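Thread: sanity check for a docking pose with zinc ion

Original post by kr_44:
Hi all, I'm comparing my docking run against an independent structure prediction. Below are the sequence and the ligand SMILES. Could someone generate the full complex and paste the structure tokens? I mainly care about where the ligand ends up relative to the chain.
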Amino acid sequence: MAEIQKEPTIILAGGRIRCRRCQAHSKRSRGQCKKPALRGKAVCRFHGGKSTGPKTHEGRQRIASAKIAHSEETRAKRRGRSESDARMRNFEDIMHVLGMTTAPRWRGRKPNGYVPITTVEQAKAWIAADTLDLHQKLSFDAISEVPPLKLHRN
Ligand SMILES: [Zn+2]
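Reply from moderator J.T.:
Ran it for you. Here is the predicted complex with zinc ion included:
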């Protein structure tokens, strides 16, 4: 999704005042809010500038566990991607451990939860666990994703 260009400042009082502009977008018009931002904030009072955030322990927990929208990103999606990345890394480890390839290793940041496999015994244990895990996931998904029965009546 293309980033929407936001105006960082707004000119007020017939060109005499230039100040930071509210960075919120209208849900209705999709345009940027035309109010100045509150002092020291990025948004106006209507768009959360007056908020000081969750205060109670309960409130903080609720926000922490909420679906935090950053485009379509959620914590669950991020976690899922880390898991599948770690799995791919482990497959690569196994290929190297078993001498199936001499290709250069996958570069970059290691995903969260990734434990490198360096011995054949580790590879065997990992494959056994992964296969079991996969079977459990597949049978669970197969049960939960059966579409509702549609009855066609003419
Ligand atoms: Zn605003």
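The CA atoms of residues 100 and 106 lie 15 Å apart. Hope that helps with the comparison, let us know if your pose agrees.
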